[in-house]
Amino acid sequence: MSDPALDLLRRIFGHPGFRGEQAQIVEQVTSGGDALVLMPTGGGKSLCYQLPALLREGCGLVVSPLIALMQDQVEGLRQLGVRAAYLNSTLDAASAADIERQLLAGELDLLYVAPERLLTARFLSLLERARIALFAIDEAHCVSQWGHDFRPEYRQLTVLHERWPDIPRIALTATADAPTRREIAERLNLEDARQFVSSFDRPNLRYRVVHKDGGGVRQLLDFLHGHRGESGIVYAFSRKRVESVAEQLQASGIDALPYHAGMDASIRAANQRRFLQQDGIVMVATIAFGMGIDKPDVRFVAHVDLPKSIEGYYQETGRAGRDGEAAEVWLSYGLGDVVNLRQLIQQGEAGEERKRLELGKLDALLGYCESTQCRRQALLGWFGEPHAGACGNCDNCLDPPRSWDGTEAARKALSCVYRTGQRFGAGHIIDVLRGASTDKVQQWGHDRLSTWGIGSDLDAQQWRGVFRQLVASGLLEADVEHHGALRLTVASGPVLRGERELRFRHEAPKPARGRKSRGTASASLPDLDPDSQIRFDALREWRSTTAREQNVPAYVIFHDSTLRAIAQAAPEDLDELGRIPGIGASKLDRYGEAVLQHLFDNA
Question: Which EC numbers does the record give (predicted)?
Answer without folding.
Answer: 5.6.2.4
